[in-house]
C-alpha cells in the first residue's frame, strides 16, 4: 500500500496490525482481540482523515499512483471496447485513448486521458499530457459518434496539454479551440467525467459536455496549485494556500455551476476499491446518457450552448 503524507497515522496502524498478524500466525499467542482493536482504530482513523479533506489533500489523492485511469474504467465498465488510433493528420497520440464501447448494451464512443501505471508507461503516455494530434484524434472519434448517433463519454485526467515547442508548432491552441467549437454543436449527447486531474486547456479540450461530473477526490482548474504558487509567491512552498485560493474541488465546481454532479468515491479514494468505483461511475454515466437521449437534438444543443454561455455571469446589484 502507498500512503500519502496526510495518511501517515493510517500507515503506522497498518504496520502495527501487520506485525501482530505475523505473531498470530505462529499460533503461540491468541492475538484476535488485538487485531480487532487495531481494525477498529483503522476504521475510525480513516473516517476522521477523509471526513474533512483540504483542497491540497484532494489534489494529492487525484494523483495517487494507484488511482485508476481511463483504461481501468473502460475494462471494468464496458463489455467490449474497440480502440481506434490516429488523427489522420500527423500521428497517434498515446496520451489520449478512445474508441467504440458497449456500456451495458448501449453503444458509446469513449475518449479519455491515459497517464500510465509505471515509469515506463508514463513516459510512453507522456504523463497524460496530450499533443495536438491527441485532441484531433478525440475530435475524429466524436464526429464518428455523431455520424452513427452514439453518445460520447469523455474521461478527464491530465496535468495539462503538452507545453513543448513541437506541440505549439503543430497547433496546440487551435486543436483545443477547434474541439470546443465542434463539441458545442455536436448532435449527440456528451457526458464528461473528471476522474483525476482536470488542468487547464488540457482538460477542457475534451471537457465540454451536456452533463459534467467529477469524482469526489478530483480537481478542476485553470492552473495547478504548484504553478499558481510559483507565479504568485515565486515558490512552490505555498501550493496548499494556492489550492484553497483556486477553489478547485468538486464541491467548489458544483457551487459555481461548472459541473452538474459529484460522484461519491469509496472511503480512502477510488484506488481503494476500483471495482466499486467503476460500478458507481457506470451507473451515473448510464443515468446521464438516458436523460440526455430523451431530449430533442436541437434542444440538447441549445441547452448546451446556454449552459456554457451562462458560466461566469455576475449579477449587478440593484
TrEMBL record:
Catalytic reaction(s) noted: N(6)-carboxybiotinyl-L-lysyl-[protein] + acetyl-CoA = N(6)-biotinyl-L-lysyl-[protein] + malonyl-CoA
Domain of life: Bacteria
Enzyme class: transferase
GO-annotated molecular function: acetyl-CoA carboxylase activity; transferase activity
Span of domain CoA carboxyltransferase C-terminal: 37-291
Residues annotated as transmembrane: none
Family annotation (Pfam families): ACCA
PANTHER family associated with the record: ACETYL-COENZYME A CARBOXYLASE CARBOXYL TRANSFERASE SUBUNIT ALPHA, ACETYL-COENZYME A CARBOXYLASE CARBOXYL TRANSFERASE SUBUNIT ALPHA, CHLOROPLASTIC
Family the UniProt entry places it in: Belongs to the AccA family.
Name the record gives this protein: Acetyl-coenzyme A carboxylase carboxyl transferase subunit alpha
Gene name of this polypeptide: accA
